[in-house]
Specification:
- 80% of the residues lie in helices and 2% in strands.
- It is mostly helical.
- The protein has one domain.
- Strands 1-2 form a two-stranded antiparallel sheet.
- A hairpin with a 2-residue loop joins β1 and β2.
- The longest helix is centred in the last third of the chain and has 44 residues.
- The N and C termini lie far apart (48 Å).
- The relative contact order is 0.16.
């Protein structure tokens, strides 16, 4: 597991580190972390309960993870070889459009995998019946909840990017089909 992960990070993430870290998604998630750390015990002192949040987030993240893996699989098996070749020859943001499409799916899947694992860890190691951030929360709990909220915000933003990317690829595919009909 660690060797393929290191290889993925080296080959896919490191070359795109600015596109991963210096983004609106990262800024929004950092803002969520800050807001939860600063105001969380005031806003979430009585409700919702930990189990309510964990159940909902785990369900969402698992569905989004499945969506991304299915999208990645479909992208790898594009039925039209000519379109796949056109996509791989197209440049987007200084890189290969096909590679960028695969990266969006895989990176979004990894983010949601992290969310699923985080939610299971929270479910295992916390009292599900307690409020999310009671007034007497330790600084550790405040930061853990804040980081989990930031991860969720990142996942939501990243999933939106995935949907937008799919729409853009769909637009390119429509143009491709239209040009085939005309010729």
């Amino acid at each position: 597991m660690f060797k393929p992960l290191a290889q993925y990070l080296k080959q896919e993430v490191v070359p795109r580190w600015k596109k991963v870290l210096v983004t609106w998604e990262s800024a929004i998630s950092a803002l969520v972390v800050y807001l939860f750390a600063k105001y969380g015990t005031h806003l979430f002192s009585a409700s919702p309960r930990v189990s309510d949040i964990v159940t909902g987030v785990a369900a969402y993240a698992a569905i989004a993870l499945g969506f991304c893996i299915a999208g990645l699989t479909i992208s790898l098996t594009l039925p039209n070889e000519t379109f796949a070749a056109k996509l791989s020859e197209t440049t987007v943001g200084g890189g290969n459009a096909y590679s960028a499409l695969l990266f969006v799916f895989s990176w979004t899947a990894i983010a949601h995998w992290c969310a699923v694992v985080t939610m299971f860890a929270i479910a295992l190691f916390s009292d599900g019946a307690s409020p999310l951030l009671p007034p007497d929360s330790s600084i550790t709990r405040v930061w853990l909840v804040s980081l989990a909220a930031g991860l969720l915000a990142y996942c939501l933003c990243q999933f939106l990017i995935t949907i937008i990317t799919l729409s853009q690829v769909g637009g390119v595919y429509i143009k491709f089909l239209t040009s085939k009909v005309k010729s």
